[in-house]
Design brief:
Structural class: alpha/beta
CATH class of the largest domain: Alpha Beta
Helix content: 10-25%
Largest sheet: 6 strands, antiparallel
Number of strands: 19
Bound molecules: flavin-adenine dinucleotide, FE2/S2 (inorganic) cluster
CATH topology of the largest domain: Rossmann fold
Strand content: 25-35%
Shape: globular
Order of helices and strands: HHEEEEHEHEEHEHEHEHEEEHEEEEEE
CATH superfamily of the largest domain: Nucleotide-binding domain of ferredoxin-NADP reductase (FNR) module
Number of domains: 3
CATH architecture of the largest domain: 3-Layer(aba) Sandwich
Number of helices: 9
Length: 399
């Protein structure tokens, strides 16, 4: 029976050093047995307050992302590979190349240099924007200690927090802090089409972004430059702190504030991403307005606080059969299904490895699994996040 402490430890030390350290050796090529690629940091630029824009060169065959998607990045810190997810904020390379072509021909979709594409049109580099958290392990490392030339592990682009996932029409981005990153990725891609309302959009865009103070804005004023140049974009920046550093009581999102900033908010396709308090308020407001179906949500923060120790008492040893691969392993009741699969030589998709991103969701064919965060039991036919679930008895998974 695992202790709650050991579960936390497992979430934050997702890979054993021995398993991956050797893999970072550049002589080993660009891809690892589990499908992850090796990327190299090609530039680091400070932005905002204690944040950085980091460009990473993936290997040649790395798949192109859709704006709004994220990538799981593994970073070696003190001999352990720590994995976290970051939004890819650069415009996909094919769009950058098309934009460069228009610009060189002076075509109608040439955009101002003040609007970045996140990487040059020639390069296959991708950009991420990392906001260092006060006690955050990986974000602080990337912002303060990482260097150009450092090697990283890269998953594939993942996620459906993207423009293609909503019908065309007017959009609203309700964001806070580093939650601006998927919005910026989508805005840059739309801007790459030029100053006319982009084909992908079919309407206009309002951004309501919350930030401690304007100095802390990521992307060095690019958001405001975009709003000044693009007739289809309006940006409202809300400072959440007063001059003395105290919380600004006026900044909290409410029905009145939404009506003031964007009268038709409940009719717009809305992307919500930001700190937990903003997410909670946003989800409640849209639900109260009967507009929950218009809202897409991306969660950046872990919900580990919800672990209910007493409800873990059911977790027990059993065996796990991975049906599609025909491989079976014994479980000690103390190892999550994702790790069991990896120990068995399989390479299931994973991103955050901590129950946030849903990349690892897999169907249970038979048996019962327990979600270690809240003790909930899943059974045949359910789809579970295997990075936070253990088998309770004999389990067969669709892997
Ligand atoms: C899909 C997705 C996309 C994301 N995109 C981005 C992005 O584009 N940019 C970005 O900056 N982030 C992004 N994130 C968040 C990112 O993945 C990390 O979660 C974030 O950077 C924090 O990781 P960390 O290792 O620095 O913090 P961790 O060490 O994992 O800590 C998590 C939090 O707990 C706090 N904490 C840690 N230890 C303590 C302690 N002892 N006491 C109190 N508090 C503590 C930290 O301050 C931090 O806020 C994304 C997350 C997801 C799921
Ligand atoms: S890998 Fe992100 S939820 Fe499992």
């Amino acid at each position: 029976m695992p202790s709650v402490g050991s579960l936390f430890e497992r979430f934050t030390t997702p890979h054993s050093p021995g398993a991956l350290l050797g893999s970072l050796n550049p002589r080993w090529g660009t891809r690892f047995p589990d499908g992850r690629a090796r990327g190299v940091i090609s530039s680091i630029s400070p932005t905002g307050s204690n944040a950085a824009l980091i460009t990473i060169l993936p290997p040649l065959a790395w798949p192109e992302h859709r704006p709004g998607q994220f990538v799981a990045i593994g970073v070696e810190i003190d001999g352990v590979i720590e994995t976290r997810c970051f939004t890819i904020t650069s415009v996909p390379r094919s769009v950058r190349k098309a934009q460069a072509h228009h610009a060189s021909g002076g075509g109608p979709s040439a955009i101002s240099e003040r609007i970045s594409l996140g990487a040059s049109s020639e390069s296959r580099a991708i950009e991420i924007a990392v906001q260092a958290s006060d006690s955050g392990l990986v974000s602080k490392h990337l912002v303060n200690a990482a260097r150009v030339g450092d090697h990283l592990l890269l998953g594939h682009p993942e996620g459906d927090f993207t423009l293609e996932s909503v019908p065309s029409g007017d959009l609203l981005f309700l964001t806070g802090g580093s939650g601006i990153t998927p919005a910026m990725a989508m805005l840059r891609a739309l801007a790459a089409e030029g100053v006319e309302p982009p084909r992908l959009l079919g309407g206009n865009v309002v951004v309501i972004h919350h930030v401690r103070s304007r100095d802390a804005l990521l992307f060095d004023g690019e958001l405001e430059s975009m709003a000044a140049e693009l007739p289809w974009l309006r940006v409202e920046v809300i400072e959440t702190r007063l001059r003395d550093g105290e919380p600004n009581p006026e900044a909290r999102i409410s029905m009145d504030r939404l009506n003031a900033h964007c009268a038709d908010w409940n009719h717009r396709r809305t992307f919500l991403c930001g700190p937990k308090a903003l997410m909670d308020d946003g989800i409640d407001l849209w639900a109260d307005a009967g507009a929950a179906d218009n809202m897409r949500v991306e969660v950046f923060q872990s919900v580990h606080g919800a672990v209910a120790g007493e409800s873990l008492a059911n977790s027990a040893a059993g065996s796990v059969l991975f049906a599609r691969s025909g491989v079976a392993v014994e479980s000690d009741g103390n190892t999550v299904l994702l790790e069991l699969a990896e120990q068995a030589g399989l390479a299931p998709k994973s991103g955050c490895r901590m129950g946030i991103c849903h990349t690892c969701v897999t169907q249970v064919h038979s048996g019962n699994t327990i979600d270690l965060r809240n003790g909930s039991i899943s059974t045949a036919g359910d789809r579970v996040q295997i990075c936070v679930s253990c088998p309770v008895d004999e389990v067969t998974l669709d892997l």
